[in-house]
Design goal:
The structure is a homodimer. The first copy, chain A, is built from 9 helices and no strands. By secondary structure, chain A is mainly alpha-helical. Chain A has a single domain, classed as Tetracycline Repressor, domain 2 (Orthogonal Bundle). In chain A, α7 packs across α8 and α8 packs antiparallel against α9. Chain A binds a DNA duplex through α3.
DNA sequence: GTCTATACAAAGATAGAC
DNA sequence: GTCTATCTTTGTATAGAC
């Protein structure tokens, strides 16, 4: 993956997280990194190709710290939960972004099918990781869950995704803090 | 408000809920209701005008049953919660839609400012209603809350918004059922 | 209120020179 | 790899007849 291709992906990711996929044009990327539209098409022939690349890179960057935590046996369930929350708390401040796949899920049927598949994969992977965490935490007697591990995973994931949308629409970081605090207390 | 104007609003609402605002064109509406593009501009000169009208009608339609419940003293806090959940459970089945303002929040910075203001209003109104419900339910000893009334309201709202996105991205109604069931049990 | 016609800008995408 | 130039389609929007 060339350096330019990577910059294109990063700029596209940020633009999608701010405005959504449909509202981003090759011209926007062109303006942002000082390269002509045609040059972008060299790296990503169609917009859908770029969209897929963006989701894949984003998905990997979010899963990486979770995989690291899984491989370290000294990481407790509570540690893992904090690591997970950290990803969402990074959206606080003047950040105009929300979760990439949260945005994309909102405009789901405007997306090319290859991108829908990637969004689907992301949602499944996130919820699967949380399910495993809650299952382990429950079995080891660390967590008290408000439902099954799967149900708890869904509640956590959905609440955090919603919190990002609320935070931006209302313009208040407390939207994230409140949800994180309440979710944390929920499994004690 | 003319009959045609209302049909335009309804079609636009459905299209936004399916694909998002940016991806909907006057041509799409034209095709859907068998009227020329120019005729739509007669009713709504600019796309932003139509967007605002859509949000306002949607917002009123969601708040109406809540206001009715508030005015009837025989409605218990649990009744109100069920009424609130019902709005989200209506998205189950083959429905390709999610909450109108959930979609719009995802593409927030692609929206005209007048529409951003309406989305903001919707989020505030929804959370405010839930906050009141939880405050009353707590004061009357009916609810046991996992946090303050405001925190609980945010958790509920965000989780339900997220559940709609998950339901569609994953294609599983259980996403809504699980979250509703877990949230219900949370205040007992 | 709806139509035809049209203006004007922007979109995604390709061809071919450098 | 990046550029200029261009194609084609689509977008929002307006003018003016009916």
């Amino acid at each position: 993956m060339s350096d330019t291709a990577n910059r294109i992906i990063d700029v596209m990711a940020k633009l999608i997280q701010t405005r959504g996929y449909s509202a981003v044009s090759y011209q926007d990327i062109s303006d942002a990194i000082g390269i002509r539209k045609a040059s972008i098409h060299y790296h990503f022939p169609a917009k859908a190709d770029l969209g897929v690349a963006v989701i894949q890179k984003y998905s990997e960057s979010l899963m990486a710290p979770l995989d690291v935590a899984d491989k370290d046996p000294s990481t407790t369930p509570y540690d893992k939960l904090d690591i997970y929350f950290a990803a969402y708390q990074g959206f606080k401040g003047d950040d105009k972004r929300v979760c990439l796949c949260g945005t994309l899920a909102g405009e789901y049927y405007a997306l090319p099918e290859v991108m829908q598949a990637e969004v689907n994969r992301f949602f499944q992977a996130q919820q699967a990781w949380l399910s495993e965490l809650f299952k382990d935490g429950k079995n080891s007697g660390v967590f008290k869950l408000p439902g099954t591990p799967e149900q708890t995973a869904r509640l956590y994931f959905d609440a955090l995704q919603g919190a990002l949308l609320s935070k931006r629409a209302i313009g208040d970081d407390a939207q994230i803090d409140d949800v994180v605090a309440t979710l944390k207390a929920l499994v004690r």
